[in-house]
């Protein structure tokens, strides 16, 4: 019995005081990175996402509208669950 308690304490101490192995920092996913990735998969170009703002007037409970500003263009992106985004280039 004593041997298993000692082994258990040793294992806990090793886990608590060992340095993290392979720890990587994951970039936070923001609306602009998520939207720019989505429109790229749909064939639109967004060289660098500069910002995304939600269009509250056009949005509905099941349909969210965003204005995505990229370095090369601005898009209105409408997202609905389980559907491809509707992307409209803005002047």
UniProtKB/TrEMBL annotation:
Taxonomic superkingdom: Bacteria
Keyword Signal on entry: yes
Keyword vocabulary terms for this entry: Signal
Annotated signal peptide: 1-23
Protein name as it appears in the record: PepSY domain-containing protein
Species whose genome carries this gene: Bradyrhizobium icense
